[in-house]
């Protein structure tokens, strides 16, 4: 192996990497918040919603879960303009991530909702809570708390999957790496540094989500810690 | 410019889908072999083995598959070999699958009650015997549904190999789109083919899980 590693380009190109990190973080935040919201809505529809809505949501979930993210992205960015739906690469990337996380989130959250004992619904009703109040306080929040670890890993997976959005020229971290390697011809080093950044982002995101879990579910969290 | 019928498009995509299938099978089988080796290191005695596997899993689950593909592609090139895309794709996908499979299977082995280990060792069984006759037969049963479920991730993961230039279903989709200028139709068909590959796997994983739960309730 006669190869000398050279990381000198970092001095010149770190702003490019920084900008890429910014876009990846932004995509993850938007995708995470909207994706989980969509997941909650779909989980409600599948578990408790009206009969006509269930097959539609099931079809959406199965379609997304059984096709690659890259193809979903290409379909949204290249395919949808044929129907007159045009968007720029960042909007397409965001939409793809929301739709993707929405489908996986739906399955995870639904599992949490279905694990709720039936008596809880009745208990909520007997306390004079409205259907919406019962859903929110009695069903959704405990369900989310139950499945929060699984949902967190799914959000991390979606963040890592966002590397593919560079393929529709959304200028995320992977796009930055591609740009740098095309300028410096230091492909291995560029991707190596980028991989380390992704690893750091994944670790940070996991910690952040754990923190979010503690703040959203404080009382129950405290109770289980006291036990 | 020549015209392309839907049949032309479908035929070319199906021909390319063969490579998606081949790469998926190779990655899954290879990943299973490497994953099994890692599993024995992870649950074995000693300190270095488990620590190594922990780090391995953390790295492969904490970085994008696309980056792993790039690093395999350019990293193998550092040794002065001209790396074909299929080789880099195969190596990266095998190592990636191994990380997930070993973690899934570790969960299954750890799900076996502690008493089973104690009971078998009180019968005078050694580690290998315990594994062979007591732990693995039970762990394998609960490992089947999530393992089948993970194969869906492998099939979907192969789509990313198009980015390093391996011509499979996704790459073929891009090539055909560039020739026909019908992205809506072509990517729609590509998605449908992926769905036809993945959905039976997802479904059988669900069915297996349900069957297994029935078996568990009888215990």
Q: Can you give keywords for this protein?
A:
heterodimer, A: 227 residues, mainly alpha, MetI-like fold, 79% helix, 0% strand, elongated, B: 219 residues, 8 helices, flat, MetI-like (chain A), transport (chain A)
Question: Describe it for me?
Answer:
The complex is a heterodimer of chains A (227) and B (219). Chain A is 79% helix and 0% strand. Chain A is mostly helical and 227 residues long. Chain A is built from 9 helices and no strands. The relative contact order of chain A is 0.15. The radius of gyration of chain A is 21 Å and the shape is elongated. Chain A has helices at 9-47, 53-65, 69-79, 89-114, 118-126, 131-161, 173-184, 187-216, 218-226. Chain B has 219 residues and is mainly α. Chain B has a single domain, classed as MetI-like fold (Orthogonal Bundle). Helices cover 82% and strands 0% of the residues of chain B. In chain B, helix 1 (6-43) packs antiparallel against helix 6 and helix 6 packs antiparallel against helix 8 (183-217). The A-B interface holds A 1-3, 62-63, 65-72, 74-75, 78-83, 156, 160-164, 166-167, 174, 177, 187-188, 191-192, 194-195, 198-199, 202-203 and B 59, 62-68, 70-71, 74-75, 77-80, 152, 156-160, 162-163, 170, 173-174, 177, 182-184, 187-188, 190-191, 194-195, 198-199, 202.
Helix/strand-derived category of chain B reads mainly alpha
- By DSSP, the count of extended strands of chain A is 0
* Overall average residue pLDDT of chain B: 92
Secondary-structure element sequence of chain A? Answer: HHHHHHHHH
CATH homologous superfamily caption of chain A? MetI-like
Radius of gyration of chain A: 21 Å
List low-confidence stretches of chain A.
none
State the domain count of chain A: 1
The strand count of chain B comes to 0
Please identify the oligomeric state: heterodimer
* Rg of chain B computed from alpha carbons, rounded to a whole number of angstroms: 21 Å
Second rung of CATH, namely the architecture of chain A: Orthogonal Bundle
Counting H and I runs of at least 4 residues, what is the number of helices of chain B? 8
The CATH first-level class of chain B comes to: Mainly Alpha
Structural class of chain A: mainly alpha
